[in-house]
């Protein structure tokens, strides 16, 4: 950091727990005429965005007429236009958004328009309905591929629980996969939660999620220390081992990992001693300290991406 740099310093309420995190939300107002300015009847926001998830709301009375990066767009209840962006890069994403002033009464919201659900209203399970804005999703997942002959891979995924009164969190096991060695950690405290398997029917009876799970589905459930109070949230990390020989297997002496990914950020790590041979969708490739290849897939859209990854042993 440069000596002349300025920053906001926040004193945490307590130390970061072992195996946990501290979450904060910062509200601040910037004045920056170089990044945000008017040009006649237009306003321009021209700024590099370094964080992964970003959303921008235009002032009332303006329509969105330009965005240099792909954006998901919605209209707030008060008529303002909202655009969100997912930064799939490891550096700053250059964003230029242009709004144009609407003439007369057309710029005034006369009625409430449909809006995306706020983060506090969206479901937070691994199979629940997703927010309209992809950038509002803070779920990340890592797959560590184990020996391909086993058909097994280790999964770690983080998500935030926001529903008032919720007493438990859930990870829905994909049909065709068998789950074992499941643990759930409350990242706000670092504590490991009591974890066990239940059926989809039992979870549906709780009424937490807008989309029901198959009654005969397998669900990993972990009990929270207490029901969430109004406005309270918690973040958890679920770690599991999946066995799924139909989606992870050996073919012609190499390994094949064939799976759809539903989250915005997904990392797949090859077993030690294996090299990447092909991958069917764009990925950011990396090498970790133990020498394993990682493939990061970022999907800014509200759908799934189908990945077919092939690897072979290093000579």
How would you portray this structure in words?
- By secondary structure, the chain is mainly beta.
- The protein has two domains: 36-115, no CATH class; 121-313, Immunoglobulin-like.
- It contains one helix and 22 strands.
- The longest helix is centred in the middle third of the chain and has 7 residues, at 200-206.
Summarize the structure.
With 315 residues, this protein is mostly beta strands.
Keywords:
315 residues, mainly beta, Immunoglobulin-like, 2 domains, eight-stranded mixed β-sheet, four-stranded antiparallel β-sheet, 1 helix, 2% helix, 44% strand, globular
CATH class of the largest domain: Mainly Beta
Number of helices: 1
Question: Looking at the structure, what is the overall shape?
Answer: globular
Tally of separate domains: 2
What class do helices, strands and sheet pairing give?
Answer: mainly beta
- Strands, count: 22
CATH topology of the largest domain: Immunoglobulin-like
Instruction: Estimate the strand proportion.
Output: 35-45%
What share of the residues lie within helices? under 10%
List the helices and strands and how they pair.
Elements: E1 36-39, E2 42-49, E3 53-57, E4 62-67, E5 72-75, E6 81-86, E7 93-101, E8 140-145, E9 152-161, E10 168-172, E11 178-186, E12 191-193, E13 195-199, H1 200-206, E14 218-223, E15 234-243, E16 248-251, E17 254-261, E18 265-269, E19 274-279, E20 284-287, E21 293-298, E22 305-313
Parallel strand pairs: 8-18
Antiparallel strand pairs: 1-2, 2-7, 3-6, 4-7, 5-6, 8-9, 9-15, 10-14, 11-12, 11-15, 13-14, 16-17, 17-22, 18-21, 19-22, 20-21
